[in-house]
Amino acid sequence: MKRVSAPLTDNVVQDLRAGDEVLISGVIYAARDAAHKRMVDLLSKGERLPFDIEGQIVYYAGPTPTRPGEVIGSAGPTTSYRMDPYAPLLIQSGLKGMIGKGQRTEPVVEAMKKFKAVYFAAVGGAGALIARAVRSNKIVAYEELGPEAVRMLEVADFPVIVAQDCYGGDLFVEGVKKYSRPYP
Question: How many domains does the chain have?
C-alpha cells in the first residue's frame, strides 16, 4: 500500500504503477460532466479555471445530498469515459490525477504519458464507504449544477488503485492477462 499526498508532483506520479494500491490524503476536487465542459470552455477561451489545476486530482463523482451531521453524502465514482473529451486539455493544463471507474480512451492515455498523469480507479457501489475518507466538502464553482458542482474535498486515506500509469501501464489490460486462463 502506497500513501500519497495531494496535490501530486511529477516524481510521485512517476513512482506509481498500474496495480498499486494507494491511499490519498490532502485536497482533491470532485467534478462531473457539466463542470468539465465548463472548465474546458474556459481554457479554450484562454480564461482561468475556478481553482488552480496544477498538480491536482479530480474525482469523477457527484455526491448525494449531505445528511445532517455528515460531511458529504454517498460519493461513489462515476464512469470516467464521459469525461474523456475534456481530460486531455485538463491534463495538458496541469491536472496530474483522475479518479473514476472504467477504462479511458486512447487520447486520455496519450495525454497521461506525455504530461505525466495517472488514473486511479475507485470501487463503484461503495460510495458510502468512500465518503468516510472525506474530512471536508466545499463547493468552489458552479453551485447551480447541484451534485455536479466542483467541490474541494479534503480527504484522508482515500482508497484507490492505479488503473493506468504515466508509462502506459493499464490494469484493465494487464489484469485480464494475469487472471485469464485458456478454456480446456
Answer: 1
